[in-house]
Write a structure and sequence with these properties.
The strands form five sheets. The chain has a five-stranded mixed beta sheet with strand order 4-1-3-2-5. It has helices spanning 20-34, 55-66, 117-124, 137-140, 159-165, 183-194, 206-213, 278-296, and strands spanning 6-14, 37-43, 46-53, 75-81, 89-93, 113-115, 129-133, 143-145, 174-178, 200-203, 221-223, 225-226, 233-234, 244-245, 252-253. It has 305 residues and is an alpha/beta fold. It has three domains: 6-93, Alpha-Beta Plaits, CATH 3.30.70.100; 113-223, Oxidized Rhodanese, domain 1, CATH 3.40.250; 252-297, no CATH class. It catalyses: uridine(34) in tRNA + AH2 + O2 = 5-hydroxyuridine(34) in tRNA + A + H2O.
Length: 305
């Protein structure tokens, strides 16, 4: 396998999936047999995940998932990685495939209107549209759409509270929401519509689809898009970005932030320096030393290191 042969598939589908527990073992066994790594989440409301492997392996996995009648028609985004972006394969059983914490929300009953990437600029450029980034603050920090509202949430569970507290600025407006791959917006738009708002829209396929299909010259996206694997971020054309992770706090850090006096590879950055002690940093320094030694032996670091 060459360094350019890893296909990354981000996938999800909301569905009535009462037998989701029975899918865990066969999917895990299939992935392991095909050399696929990443994470799949299964719940009674459907499937969600990101996995990587050879193009042939990913094709076989997608075929197996879509062999389940309820999961036919997955929302799929493909990209590529120069190195395997995951270190293990996990298939997890969950209460929700994306955790919002509002269990009565059902995207199969009511969601916002899908907007194709080619039509997104027109919608968000309108003066009567409020554009909301439904991702978490550390994701927004490295890139977002121009003039989008950042709710500054730490987790998706905080999003419903933010909406309730900011209803006034949404009244009488078109509400356009977006997220990385589209799945969070399925629930976010369902929640907002449940509050009585009618003109609710979301970007079909999420930021990833937009960056894949819209040229940099026409784009209203600034920065990079955070992804939950070793690539850390991607840009237009889904090319791997220049953002890295602080291995102490796991916050994404830009090249500019790596110039900070508080940045020390594997030890600290401006986001965590004042929240950690000298003892913490000494421990991180030793961990980083061990990671570097392991890399010299040909081992790869884990995203949490």
């Amino acid at each position: 396998m060459t360094n350019t042969s890893f296909t990354v598939a981000a996938l999800y589908r909301f569905a009535r999936l009462p037998h989701y527990e029975a899918l865990r073992e066969p999917l895990a066994e299939l992935c392991c047999s095909l050399g696929i790594k990443g994470t799949l989440l299964l719940a009674a409301e459907g499937i969600n995940g990101t996995v990587a492997g050879s193009a042939e392996a990913i094709e076989k996995l997608i075929a197996r998932i879509e062999a389940e009648p309820e999961l036919k028609g997955l929302e799929l985004k493909y990209s590529h990685a120069g190195e395997m972006p995951f270190h293990r394969m996990k298939v997890k059983l969950k209460k929700e495939i994306v955790t919002m914490g509002v269990l009565e929300i059902d995207p199969l009953k009511s969601v916002g209107t899908y907007v194709a990437p080619k039509d997104w600029n027109g919608l968000i450029s309108s003066s009567d549209t409020v554009v909301i980034d439904t991702r978490n603050d550390y994701e927004v920090a490295i890139g977002t759409f121009r003039d989008a509202i950042d709710p500054q949430t730490k987790t998706f569970r905080e999003f419903p509270v933010w909406v309730e507290q900011n209803r006034e600025q949404l009244e009488g407006k078109k509400i356009a929401m977006f997220c990385t791959g589209g799945i969070r917006c399925e629930k976010a738009t369902a929640f907002v519509k449940g509050l009585g708002f009618d003109e609710v829209y979301h970007l079909k396929g999420g930021i990833l689809k937009y960056l894949e299909e819209v040229s940099p010259e026409e784009s209203r996206w600034d920065g990079e898009c955070f992804v939950f694997d070793e690539r850390v971020s991607v840009g237009h054309g889904l090319q791997e970005g220049v953002t890295e992770l602080c291995r102490a706090c796991r916050h994404p850090i830009t090249p500019e932030e790596r110039l900070s006096q508080y940045y020390r590879e594997g030890v600290s950055c401006s986001h965590c320096y004042h929240e950690r002690t000298d003892e913490d940093r000494a421990r991180y320094a030793e961990r980083h030393r061990q990671v570097m030694l392991a890399e010299q032996r040909g081992q790869k670091r884990h995203i949490g290191q």
